[in-house]
Amino acid sequence: MSERTIEKAGLRPARPAPVSALCSVWLRIAPDRFHHLKFILEGYDNLAILSSGGEPGLVRLRCARESMAELFALVGAMAPELRIYPKISRSETCMSRKW
Hints:
The chain has 3 helices and 3 strands; from the N terminus they run αβαββα. By secondary structure, the protein is α+β, with helices and mostly antiparallel strands. 7% of the residues are buried.
């Protein structure tokens, strides 16, 4: 059927659902952990798009608004693996730590 025939019959072609705009989240991670994060995100098909931010360790994650909670849960769980600085225990202070 042609488009004109469809219009004459009072039918309309189905339109795809609107694509939601992607939300951006900027993170600073240890530069050597970029590929690790990329590898993990690839396991979550279409969860987020990862790109570098131009500076070492600066990354941009883009995802659908509907996926933000899942992305934040994943990144939050991975935070200890992505951190830049060594973890300091509560018993240590700035003065007791040897830099």
